[in-house]
Write a structure and sequence with these properties.
single chain; alpha+beta; Nucleotidyltransferase, domain 5; 2 domains; seven-stranded mixed sheet; EC 2.7.1.5; FGGY_N; FGGY_Carb_Kinase
Length: about 500
């Protein structure tokens, strides 16, 4: 008999509620409801519309009972990392849900280093240094709103908050907790010594649970309202990348992945954390994966830059933009590159195309002329940055990475996939697009006892259409990569 599960996936630009039907080693995924997500600017800063997200999630769940031809066994939420909610003693939100692009974290990294050295923070957490990390958000809260942290009874990541509203149980799932820079990946627990050194309250940090943990039934009002009386809430890998990596249709060794969306997460799955001076120098991150694995990776800015460019151009269709980029330079390289992770590209703004031009001008490169050239510049720069990260991963792990799995929304961009294969010199396997949903659903199925962990990737491979790209014309990218690497080195 098939089993039915519901995945709630919240991304930085949109959310989905999807129904999964698992029978044998085949998974069918139907997206029931899509909705936009984005920042809301208030006088006090930048926020997420968490109440609007809750409303949309509820609407999606209300559609589920009508679509499934059998009882729905479980549901679970995944989302982006680093952002969190603080709840008071009554379980009420204390400051809404802050957006990681809020500029309040500027200067907070230096404030943290005054309390504990950069090297010691990395030895403790193994996490990539980014100003958006939860640690620096908490220090900003402490500085700007004295007393708020002392009153907080619960610190919950975004999926933990929704799970709390669904079940009344306040816990933190491990994969998302590992994005905070408050987590010790070696011990698998909160980094209590660091938390104390930073002067942060320990009481607000609740118990950690593993992916696949059963959190309990829906609260009666929700079960009745949505017709989901048999459904249990099960924590998937609540960090969306953890769910996506859980659904990589890979075999054997020698493979890496790119979870490609607003952010690009470039990494590989390891049995233990890699926390060394070499990984610190590369600013690699060690995040918790499903079933005790580690996601050794680097966050690359991803499609965010293009999303902001597109917005500034009046939201033309994506296929048109990619066709223009293809026409600008049918073969070889455009010859102008950016570091996608340069701080100038972090924040939102309608001037993103101008920021690309300013970067090229400041680094003595030809200016991209027209939007097709801007798109091409960004895509080529992403492909070259992926190669830079992959070579660093090979050095610190001693592995030879010959295959690159690209999952998520970016896996649909044919031009980008071809550029990645050519620039990295590695075979690219693109798909599934819905890796995050599939990983979420299948980890839930494991928690329900209807799927064995060793079956998960076989199910994904059997249920997906994958596209393969050979690394053609790799020699044409040797000189562009050398120039790109010099560009990166000049900024460090």
């Amino acid at each position: 008999m098939p089993s039915y599960h519901l995945a709630i996936d919240l991304g930085a630009s949109g959310g989905r509620v999807a129904l999964g039907r698992l029978e044998g080693e085949r998974l069918e995924v139907e997206v029931l409801h899509r909705f936009p997500n984005g920042p809301v600017e208030l006088p006090g800063g930048l926020y997420w519309d968490v109440l609007g997200l809750w409303r949309e999630v509820g609407h999606g769940l209300s559609l589920a009972a009508e679509r499934a031809s059998g009882p729905i066994a479980s549901l679970g939420v995944d989302s982006w990392g680093v952002d969190f909610a603080l709840l008071d003693e009554y379980g009420l939100l204390m400051d809404g849900l802050r957006h990681y692009r809020d500029p309040r974290t500027e200067g907070q990294m230096e404030r943290a280093f005054a309390r504990m050295s950069r090297e010691e923070i990395y030895r403790t957490t193994g996490l990539q240094f980014m100003p958006i990390n939860s640690l620096y958000q908490l220090l900003a809260t402490e500085e700007r709103s004295p007393g708020v942290l002392a009153r907080a009874q619960h610190f919950l990541m975004v999926p933990d908050l929704l799970h709390y509203w669904l079940t009344g149980r306040a816990v933190c799932e491990r994969t998302n907790a590992s994005t905070t820079q408050l987590f010790d990946p070696t011990q698998g627990d909160w980094a209590w010594g660091l938390i104390q050194a930073m002067g942060l309250p320990q009481a607000m940090l609740g118990p950690l649970v593993e992916p696949g943990s059963r959190l309990g039934p829906l609260l009666p009002p929700w079960a009745s309202r949505w017709g989901l009386r048999d459904a249990e809430v099960i924590a998937p890998g609540t960090h969306d990348t953890a769910s996506a990596v859980a659904a990589i249709p890979a075999e054997g060794e020698g493979w890496a992945y790119i979870s490609s969306g607003t952010w690009s997460l470039v990494g590989l799955e390891t049995a233990q954390p890699h926390i060394t001076p070499q990984t610190l120098a590369l600013n690699l991150t060690n995040e918790a994966g499903v079933h005790g694995t580690t996601r050794l990776l680097k966050n690359v800015m991803g499609l965010w830059i293009l999303q902001e460019c597109r917005r500034s151009w009046g939201d033309p269709e994506w296929p048109q933009l990619y066709a223009e980029a293809e026409a600008v330079c049918p073969r070889g390289s455009l010859g102008a590159y950016i570091d996608p992770d340069h701080p100038s590209f972090l924040h939102a703004g309608s001037d993103m195309p101008q920021r690309v031009a300013v970067y090229c001008e400041r680094t003595a490169q030809p200016l991209p002329q027209g939007r097709g050239a801007v798109v091409r510049c960004v895509l080529e720069s992403l492909a070259l940055k992926y190669r830079w990260v992959l070579e660093g991963l090979e050095r610190v792990t001693g592995q030879t990475l010959h295959t690159l799995h690209v999952v998520g929304g970016g896996s649909q961009i044919d031009l980008l996939n071809r550029l990645i294969a050519a620039a990295t010199g590695r075979a690219v396997i693109a798909g599934p697009v819905e890796a995050t949903l599939m990983g979420n659903l299948l980890v839930q199925a494991e928690g329900c006892g209807v799927l064995e962990p060793q079956q998960r990737r076989r199910v994904v491979a059997a249920s997906s259409t994958l596209r393969r790209y050979a690394p053609e014309h790799f020699s044409d990218w040797i000189t562009p990569y050398m120039r790109f690497a010099e560009l990166i080195a000049g900024q460090n």
